[in-house]
């Protein structure tokens, strides 16, 4: 019976860590939480430099 308590504590800690990392990614990098939500993060400027001899 006492061996279940550390197991449940570790499960709760993993759950809290996952939620905290998800919130951190959402607030810091702007990663959307829902599947259909899209955000424009930046704009890419394609550039190519060709050196011909």
Question: Could you describe the 3D structure shown?
Answer:
- The protein has one helix at residues 4-29.
- The protein is mainly α and 53 residues long.
- It is elongated, with a radius of gyration of 22 Å.
- The mean pLDDT is 86.
Short description:
This protein is mainly α and 53 residues long.
Mean pLDDT: 86
* Shape annotation: elongated
Please state the CA-atom Rg, rounded to the nearest Å: 22 Å
Provide the helix percentage.
Answer: 40-55%
- Determine the oligomeric state from the structure: single chain
Which structural class matches the secondary elements?
Answer: mainly alpha
Distance between the termini: 78 Å
Number of contiguous helices: 1
The major beta sheet can be summarized as: none
Please give a handful of descriptors for the protein shown.
53 residues; elongated; mainly alpha
SSE topology:
Layout: H1 4-29
């Amino acid at each position: 019976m006492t061996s279940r308590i550390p197991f449940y504590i570790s499960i709760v800690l993993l759950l809290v860590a996952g939620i905290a990392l998800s919130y951190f990614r959402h607030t810091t990098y702007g990663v959307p939480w829902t599947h259909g939500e899209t955000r424009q993060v930046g704009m890419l400027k394609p550039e190519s430099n060709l050196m011909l001899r």
